[in-house]
Give the backbone structure.
Amino acid sequence: MGNLSPLRSSKKAAVACNNCSLSELCLPRGLTQEELNRLEAAIEKTIKITKKDYLYRRDDAHQAIYAVKSGAIKTCLSTSDGEEQILGFYLPGDLIGFDALAHNHHTCDAQALEDTLVCELKMDAFQDLCGSLASLRLGMMRQVGIEIEREHHMLLTLGQMRTEERLATFLIGISERNQARGFSRKEFYLPMARHDLANYLGMAVETLSRMFSRLQEDNIITVRHRLIDILDMDKLKELAHYNCRNT
Amino acid sequence: MGNLSPLRSSKKAAVACNNCSLSELCLPRGLTQEELNRLEAAIEKTIKITKKDYLYRRDDAHQAIYAVKSGAIKTCLSTSDGEEQILGFYLPGDLIGFDALAHNHHTCDAQALEDTLVCELKMDAFQDLCGSLASLRLGMMRQVGIEIEREHHMLLTLGQMRTEERLATFLIGISERNQARGFSRKEFYLPMARHDLANYLGMAVETLSRMFSRLQEDNIITVRHRLIDILDMDKLKELAHYNCRNT
DNA sequence: CGTTGGATTGATATCTGTCAAGCCCGGTGG
DNA sequence: CCACCGGGCTTGACAGATATCAATCCAACG
């Protein structure tokens, strides 16, 4: 468990959206220079979250939307009987914090999987901006829409697929997200522990481990702990029914 | 399968938001009278969708957000290999259409489970309104947030629960939604077929049927086809781990 | 009143979870 | 430098839940 009150070091963002390599994935996409300047003025600071600390917890007031700059964050629903469901993994360029839109307080926990930097966009400043910047409203809606689509796809994964298919689908997704960020689409590090990934994919850790082993035996990937190398993307997509589920 | 191009009869809404019994569940919640008037002016018409026809289909342009006035709608992802995943059931007072926020076209199908009436709020009129009505922006965000929370809860259901627990959770949810709409929370009609419900809950139809039977044997509910009577809400909540998962 | 599609029930196969043991790697301290 | 943990991960054996296949059953409807 991380600290309940994580120490956060913060300062004005060192990297402006302008110079941020992630801006094409993030909220700024499609904004003009002038609009971007106004958005940036509303971005308070960059927050550093140490591995295992929380960006926010359930019931925290909805103070801001965050953009991941580096590192990785998981969101997760916890129940009082000790069960939990991982809701998503957030990588650089992803926006996080929409779980609080309905009730003005967060409805899940957001925890850093590794040391992580996020930009903070305060809700009050954001609300003001939305009044005058139609493009920002659209950008926000687009981001919320992406979140909804992601969750729809996850419902399909949990509702219809068997374990091997789920893992294949997940690996392809991570691969594509890495590619969009300019990293290798065939070789990468998973930021999360087996425990978290198994939970996210709705299976036991042991089952997940077996599926990794099976993919390796079939020469589709190599696994060395969290380091994944996709050897045969076509076969992987076949297992994931990739072409069926995306057309 | 319904028609690909359903016939829609439409007219200006017969019931204004003011007089609509659902306004407390719907977008108008929290708006002042003047704001409400402006919103209403943007509501184009009431659309009638015949059972099995589609309100919209995947890839349709995002023309509007819809509010269900009566009837019921399911949303559903279809894959080219013939599988599908039901994403949600929408009852009177619910807003539908957020799946298109990211890409300006719909990413799932929305089909009427019975003859259904919806209000149509055109996106362009809505975008204009959002510029000047901060309260409407907030209302929209709240509705989107509700959708996200609903999906989070569904991920928990599919990821962590076993079949009986899923059904119990679903029945409690329907019961609460009925109650919020002024209907009985213990006796109600399910608008969807077993096939759809089983798909939604990520199990085989036969398993769902067995779970219904088991709940009936244990005198927790009575089932007569789609008519459900909850005899013992406490036991049902116990099965659903209701208190664990909602605190 | 027969047809048809949905729903239930039964028998069986399969997948996945559970329990248990062992492995591997990184960290720690002697 | 090496031995010794400890936690995360993997593997194996087994049990149990759920899917699948098949056979009714039932209700709505023409």
Q: What stands out?
A: Residues 1-7 of chain A have pLDDT under 50 and may be disordered. The two ends of chain A are 41 Å apart (CA to CA). The first helix of chain A runs from residue 33 to 42. DSSP finds eight helices and twelve strands in chain A.
